[in-house]
Each structure stands twice: as structure tokens, then as C-alpha cells.
Amino acid sequence: MGNPQNFSIDVPQRCLILLEQLWPSVSNKADGRELPLNASFLLAISTPMVNLPIERIWKPQNGRAVGHLNDAILDASLAKAVKADIGQNPVVKAPFYEAGAWRYHYLPKGTALPDLSRQGLPLAVQQVLATDTALSAADVLATETFCSILRNGLAHGGVLYLDSHGQTTEGAPVTRFCFVSTKQKNQAVVGLHFLQITMKNYRAFLGRWVGWLQNGTAMPAT
User: Fold this and answer.
1) Burial group, residue 112, by CB count within 10 angstroms (0-12, 13-18, 19+)
2) Can you tell me the distance from the alpha carbon of 42 to that of 91, in angstroms, rounded to the nearest whole number?
3) Is the CB of residue 5 less than 8 Å from the CB of residue 14?
4) What is the largest CA-CA distance in the chain?
5) Smallest Cα–Cα separation from 207: which of 42, 13, 38, 51?
6) CA distance 60 to 196
7) Measured between alpha carbons, how far is 98 from 83 in angstroms, rounded to an integer?
8) Rounded to whole angstroms, how far apart are CA atoms 98 and 185?
9) Within 13 Å of residue 217, how many CA atoms lie on the same side as its CB?
10) Which is the most buried residue in 44, 62, 135, 200, by most CB within 10 A?
11) What share of the chain is helix, strand, coil (3-state, %, to 5)?
12) What is the dihedral of CA 103, 182, 206, 72, to 10 degrees?
């Protein structure tokens, strides 16, 4: 493939092709590894898929970019869809979102933020994310907030690997991601957003995301 005509569409589409073609390989235990590399691969391949459209289409239209990379001018219909779908409406209405797949919790800063690098996901947050309340909390997030959490987590390394119980367990197989982003007020951090999803559902989300970019409708994952 040559130089993309529109990075915000072409690169996510190419990444999706790579994801589907290479998934069987990275899901195997090879080269003496005790665990597969599918979690690391999924996280790496999804970063440009999610961030390019936000950075190069959504941000320029909302005055949040300097304008030297503005893919909105390359496809007026896509630019219109991105601006319309990423706003203050509940994310459950977005064409790329699946209700019941995401879990959300907001943790106020209090006296200090938790040390996620050393301690992993705090037990109190883990317990809340395991409840049905966390499912409904994700559904009512503003689409702009949802996309910002996901974008910030991927762009700034705010990602936690979790096991099947939603815990940060060293050496355990990874089955979930938790994207973490700060909430700021007057340029000060006041709390943390936690957005959790299983790897299976995240992979399906990426298919819907690319489908939305291509034609405004969901594209099922294979």
C-alpha cells in the first residue's frame, strides 16, 4: 500500500487488516513464551486507530489543534459525522459503542492520587468496576468524555493490564484493559477516570470504530 490519502481513515483501516491477519499468530504461545502477545499487540495496533481521527479530524473542528494536520477538509461527510457523533450526547447512542461492554468509575483525588505504577488498580476501584453500576455509568458518559479518556489513556500510557477478575496480577494472563485519564479543573488534577473493557470486546469495538469512520455505520469484527 502506498501513502494514505487520508490518514484518519486509511491508517485505521490498514491497522484493522493487520489485526485480523496477525491475531492468530500473536495469540499463540511461541518462542518459548509462557503467555501470548495478543494483549500487547492489541494495545499497540489500536493506538493510531483511535487517536488519528481524534487528533486530525475532531480536534481541529473544535479548536483544539493548531491546524497543520487537519484531515477534516479531506472528507466533508466524515468530518460532519465525527463532529456530530463526538459531543455531549450519551455515548450509548454512538454508532461505535456497544452497551454492556464498557465499565466506568470516577475517583476524586482526595488527599492524593493512587500510585498505579506500583499498586496497580486500587481495590476499591476494582470492586466498583465489577458492579452493574459501572456498566450503566459508562453508557451515560458524554461521547466526548468517553473518547477523551480512551485517547488520553492510549496517548499518555494510562493503561492497566487486568486479569479475568479485573485485578492487576503480575504474571497472570491479560483479559481486560483499563484506560486511565485525569480530570482537570483550572489546570489542576482533581480525579481519575477509569474505563474498563475486556480484550474481546475491545477488539470488537475497533471493528465498529473503523466501520464508523468508513461509512458512519458499525462494522462487525471477524
Assistant:
1) exposed
2) 22
3) no
4) 52
5) 13
6) 28
7) 20
8) 30
9) 3
10) 135
11) 50, 15, 35
12) 140
Task: Report the phi/psi class of residue 217: left, alpha or beta, with left for phi > 0 and alpha for psi in -120 to 50.
Answer: beta
Q: Of how many residues is the chain composed? A: 222
| Assigned C-alpha cell, 127 | 470492586
Per-residue pLDDT of the chain (222 residues; tens, 9 = 90+): 678 888 899 999 999 999 999 999 999 887 767 788 999 999 999 999 999 999 999 998 887 766 788 898 898 888 999 999 999 999 999 999 999 999 999 999 988 999 999 999 999 999 999 999 999 999 999 999 999 999 999 999 999 999 999 999 988 899 999 999 999 999 899 999 999 999 999 999 999 999 999 985 444 444
Residue 106: closest CA among 169, 187, 196, 188: 196
Which residue is associated with the grid cell 500510557? 157
**Residue carrying C-alpha cell 486530525:** 56
Indicate the SS3 state at residue 116: helix
